[in-house]
Amino acid sequence: MQQLSGLDTVFLNLETNAVPMHIGSLAIIDPGAAGPDFGFESVRRLIERRLHLLPMFRRRLMTTPLGLDQPYWIEDPDFDIESHVRHRALPRPGTLKQLNDLVCDVMSIRLDRSMPLWKVYYVEGLEGGKVALVSKIHHACIDGVSGSELFSTLLDVTPQPREVAPPDAPWIPDELPPPLKLSLITARNFLARPGKIYKLARRTIPLVLEVRREAMARQQATRRASTVDADTNRKPTVMAPRMRFNTTITARRSYASGSLSLKDIKLVKNAFGVSLNDVVLGICAEALRNYLLAGKELPDRPLIAAVPMSVRGNGERGGNRISMLRAALATDIADPVERLQALSAKMVGVKRTMKAIPASLMLDWAHTPPPSVMAQAARLYENFSIQDLVHPPFNLVISNVPGPKLPLYLDGAKVEAHYPISIPYHGLACNITVFSYQDSLDVGITAHRGTVPDVEVIMEGMAAALAQLKHRAQQQLRKAG
Length: 481
Known about the structure:
The protein has 12 helices and 15 strands. It has helices at 6-13, 40-49, 96-107, 144-154, 179-225, 230-233, 262-272, 276-294, 336-356, 359-365, 371-383, 455-480; strands spanning 2-3, 22-30, 59-62, 72-75, 85-94, 118-126, 131-138, 253-261, 304-310, 322-328, 396-401, 409-410, 413-421, 430-437, 440-448. The chain has a 6-stranded mixed β-sheet with strand order 5-6-7-2-13-12, sandwiched between helices. The chain has a 6-stranded mixed β-sheet with strand order 8-15-14-11-9-10, sandwiched between helices. It has a 3-stranded antiparallel β-sheet with strand order 1-4-3, with no helix packed on it.
């Protein structure tokens, strides 16, 4: 048995029927160069041969009495690969829209907690004879970075599948612990919880006060340095403005996918002296600004994005090791280059603040509330539509996940693109996630269909935003040269 971390348990407790808490991906695969035996059965056999490299794939949940402690992963004695690798087909020739609609159907349904929390769908019938692999795995099992590692484990860097050594020892399913033993362990951990909270508070409060003092000192220094600074004359971005995305949602999903040139993004990055992640945020900001302007819905204050940041240490695998940055997207600035430079300057301060508080400390806080309390709070939040009554801390989620630079192959078939699929939530009805693969940034936009039915417009806006920034970058480089 292996106990879940506090953050992994949070993702379990936030889940309701309206908000399934699984992430996933849509891989577009060209089987043209694969052998004649390539197909659903060969892919399922490949996954089965590599199960020992993917320990989460054979583990299921075991909850604790009354939900008073974090649940455990156990090796599932009833594991059956056929329950997890499934076959689907689109009516030929299947279009991208039909494939995206299938993604919405698959991702709107919760995973069965009596089984390991993952599924893979092999999808045939795409245009050009291509196939797709749609995966879903609970966020309690992985975050974006560990999901990228999982993706690489299943695939190969050459058309010829690599030889995988068998496990050192045969897989042995767990026996369920006696109820009395589990109850005693749960009671001991529950009674120790108040003492842990007290120690955490003693460590946390001085750090928070110090960070606050430093932030106020920097703000005062900035104001003294310039009395005619346009940035200081704008409204402070303390809270996010209320807008369309900040509402209670249902399980109905909309999804759009597309690719952006990594070469063009690096050109913009180098021309304006910002980071690659800043350029991604700038592209999203331009697309969102134009999307909202078209509907006359752009708020006066800048949109605020929640940006997950990996705090995974060397050698750490599986589970969730993330913290959340708060990025002001400067959507109140009309010029895209000025906006890019403004949000880049803001991100420097945000990252400095995050580094001042150890990531381990924030993750420890996630371990403190009993799971039963967190689960009940999530249901109250949903049932009473609390998000519709309070001011939102964020407007949406934007995530940037690093991926492999080399082409990858599935049982000899080349993976052409790998689009992420993520989670909208109450008050965060739109989630933009990008995944770098070869020379592209593959984008997946997952949203609530009732709130953002035309999510493909945002995807088209991101491509147009990059083209505009590329043009400005080329002008900048010509002037500098």
